[in-house]
Amino acid sequence: MAKTDLKTAAKSPKATGKNGAATRASTKTTRSDSTIADKLIDLYRLQSLDSQVDKIQTQRGELPLEVQDLEDEVAGLETRLSKLQEELAELETSVSDRQNLIKDAKAQIKKYEAQQAKVRNNREYDSLSKEIEFQTLEIQLAEKRIKETKALIDAKSEVVGSSNSLCKDRKKDLDHKRKELDAIIAETEKEEKALQKKVDQVAAKVEERLLVAYKRIRSNARNGLAVVPVERGSCGGCFNAIPPQRQLDIASHKKLIICEHCGRILVDEQIVQSVEGAE
């Protein structure tokens, strides 16, 4: 009897050892599954929060782009207006210089005419006459140039006036759009900041390589979806059918599964419910 008990006792530890090993293996598997599941939950939660932020930003519509376009247009108009005004100032200076030239030429003519009255011979008279003729031609040329320049000034002034009017109109449009955008931002700013804080908290829990991959996939996706659920046997991003075996792999949470067609990370209904239930 004692021998039987000893044999039983001797066998017992072996059995216990086998059971212990099985239990440890089971625990290890569970931990592994749990880790992958946790990663998927964090990724899907991050996607859910990012999508909410995207929705808020979408409410602003094209306003940010419209504001940017108007800012660029106003800046361009102001630069053009500044150049036109500089050209106008140069033309007006040119007119002023030629008017001074005419005054000087007329003064020279009077001087030469006075000298002609005192000349002693024809040679001096002819020389002064040529000077008077030259100054007269200078006056005629200056008057012609002044006339041409004034025509340019009138044309430039019209362009400056229209550009100035257009610039004022665009500034009014810009002020209106800015106020509209500021009003929308003011309405959603608090909610967006709260969501962004949650995004940062969840992102901090995601390991670096997964976060990099998530951001890369998200930036390449038109709708900003990097993590999508399997819906009716299809990818929730590109809507291509997923084979049954692959659906089982997704549901097993043993590894991250990527859609073969669009490259998005796939999750099953259990992950979706875990995130939605927690929210």
Question: Could you write a compact summary of the structure shown?
Answer:
The chain has 279 residues and is mostly helical. It has 2 domains: 104 residues, Helix Hairpins, CATH 1.10.287; 115 residues.
Describe the structure.
The chain is mainly alpha-helical and 279 residues long. The chain has two domains: 29-59 and 207-279, Helix Hairpins (Orthogonal Bundle); 79-193. It has six helices and four strands. The chain has helices at residues 2-59, 63-116, 122-205, 208-220, 244-252, 269-278, and strands at residues 227-231, 234-235, 257-258, 265-267. Strands 2-1-4-3 form a four-stranded mixed β-sheet. The relative contact order is 0.12. Residues 1-34 have low confidence and may be disordered.
Order of secondary-structure elements: HHHHEEHEEH
- Report the major sheet: 4 strands, mixed
Q: In DSSP terms, counting alpha (H) and pi (I) runs of 4 or more, how many helices? A: 6
What is the number of independent domains? 2
Beta-strand fraction estimate: under 5%
Oligomer: single chain
Strand order of the largest sheet: 2-1-4-3
Distance between the termini: 63 Å
- Measured as a percent range, the helix fraction is over 70%
Mean pLDDT across the residues is: 86
Radius of gyration of CA atoms, rounded to a whole number: 43 Å
Structural class determined from secondary elements: mainly alpha
Low-confidence stretches: 1-34
